């Protein structure tokens, strides 16, 4: 069984570790971790049963696959806390938004194989959408391993690295757009007389159910929308209000602006 190391043991790393362990793709005894936070180290040691180290270098030296799970602005300094010998021949996965494969390879010895992954926060509840882009040194078996790991916390899809900024703008930032939508739907329910707890539960379940219909039926969202929209009925009245306020354009622009910002961050 593969040995893993988490370089950074925050909430995303915790969610991934829990998924790997629950789906039995990696046992807790094969997971190594280090974080500068003592509280985060305790979570991995006491709650997950993983092996916690006293440095990033020690954690990486004892693994086959290292997962860089630190914020993008700290990634360079963090990577340099690991010796080139410890990085040697490792499969290195980065979930840091905006940090390119070229930048990552500049921080690592030539023998390291690099994969960029863009998961999103629903990883915390096992419903992530993870996009994967691999360097040319990465083997097909490496890619299959990465997919099997991240499939434990949701769906995975392989993309060209050039698409990752758009992935960041859509699925990376997308949960925030959906949370905003759920909050607004709940507000609409309250405005119409529903108690807040009822309105929020109905809004969240409606979004989840609608998303599941798209994924499981394979039908175009527009077709599914038309199935709900009766002539002169309540739904078309609501859809007209959304169109009148430019909701569709607002979502398109949100994804586009977030994509542009991701591109800007990758050049810093």
What does this structure look like?
With 268 residues, this protein is an alpha/beta fold. It folds into 2 domains: 4-162, NAD(P)-binding Rossmann-like Domain (Rossmann fold, 3-Layer(aba) Sandwich); 172-266, ProC C-terminal domain-like fold (Orthogonal Bundle), CATH 1.10.3730.10. It has an 8-stranded mixed β-sheet with strand order 3-2-1-4-5-6-7-8, with helices on both faces. 54% of the residues lie in helices and 13% in strands. The radius of gyration is 21 Å and the shape is elongated. It has helices at residues 11-22, 38-47, 56-61, 72-79, 84-87, 101-107, 140-150, 164-172, 174-191, 196-217, 221-228, 234-244, 247-266, and strands at 4-7, 31-34, 51-52, 65-68, 91-94, 113-118, 128-134, 154-158. Helix 9 crosses helix 10 (196-217).
């Amino acid at each position: 069984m593969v040995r893993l190391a988490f370089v950074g043991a925050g909430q995303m790393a915790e969610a991934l570790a829990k998924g790997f362990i629950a789906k039995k793709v990696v046992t807790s005894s094969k997971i190594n971790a280090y974080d500068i936070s003592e509280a985060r180290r305790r979570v991995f040691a006491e709650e997950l049963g993983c092996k916690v180290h006293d440095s990033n270098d020690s954690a990486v030296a004892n693994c086959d696959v290292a997962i860089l799970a630190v914020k993008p602005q700290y990634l360079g300094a963090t990577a340099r806390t690991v010796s080139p010998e410890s990085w040697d021949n490792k499969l290195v996965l980065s979930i840091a938004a905006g940090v390119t494969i070229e930048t990552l390879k500049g921080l690592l010895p030539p023998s390291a194989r690099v994969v960029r992954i863009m998961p999103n926060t629903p990883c915390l509840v096992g419903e992530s959408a993870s996009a994967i882009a691999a360097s040319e040194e990465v083997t097909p078996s490496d890619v299959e391993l990465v997919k099997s790991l991240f499939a434990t916390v949701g769906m995975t899809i392989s993309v060209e690295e050039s698409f990752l900024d758009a992935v960041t703008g859509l699925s990376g930032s997308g949960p925030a757009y959906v949370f905003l939508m759920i909050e607004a739907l709940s507000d609409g329910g309250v405005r119409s007389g529903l108690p807040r707890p009822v309105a929020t539960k109905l809004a969240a379940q409606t979004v989840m159910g609608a998303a599941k219909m798209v994924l499981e039926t394979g039908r175009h969202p527009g077709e599914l929308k038309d199935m709900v929209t009766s002539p002169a009925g309540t739904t078309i009245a609501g859809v007209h209000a959304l169109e009148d306020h430019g909701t569709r354009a607002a979502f398109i622009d949100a994804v586009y602006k977030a994509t542009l910002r991701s591109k800007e961050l990758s050049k810093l």
